[in-house]
């Protein structure tokens, strides 16, 4: 085993640890390229930089989104409860001001107009 082969295997193992499917791309590059070592290293560095950059962007982007959404959910909750409050106030005012046929203020439809007698005992 030569030092060059060992370094190549270590480089391919490092690249394989980044993404399993990239090992096949590197093998194709090494077989088809005019300068396989330079092309393989350029691909490995490019893959590492790309994955690292997207990982950092995802991490910091989600952190910023969490901060922004935390304030947003508080305001959405406030707006929602304000709308619900206004709707219930309007419904309550309409309930006691609208006069409809058969509607008597102070009496509710679930109360009987006269008490029912279940049995008449003498």
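Q: What amino acid sequence fits the structure above?
A:
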């Amino acid at each position: 085993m030569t030092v060059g082969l060992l370094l190549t295997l270590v480089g391919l193992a490092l690249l394989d640890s980044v993404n399993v499917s990239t090992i096949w791309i590197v093998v194709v590059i090494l077989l088809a390229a005019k300068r396989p070592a330079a092309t393989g290293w350029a691909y490995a560095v490019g893959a590492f930089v790309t994955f690292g950059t997207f990982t950092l962007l995802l991490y910091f982007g989600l952190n910023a989104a969490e901060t922004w959404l935390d304030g947003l959910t508080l305001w959405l909750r406030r707006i929602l409860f304000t709308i619900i409050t206004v709707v219930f106030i309007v419904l309550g005012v309409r309930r006691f001001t609208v006069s409809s046929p058969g509607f008597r203020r102070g009496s509710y439809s679930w109360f009987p107009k006269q008490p029912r007698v279940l049995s008449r005992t003498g």
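Q: And what stands out in the fold?
A: The mean pLDDT is 76.
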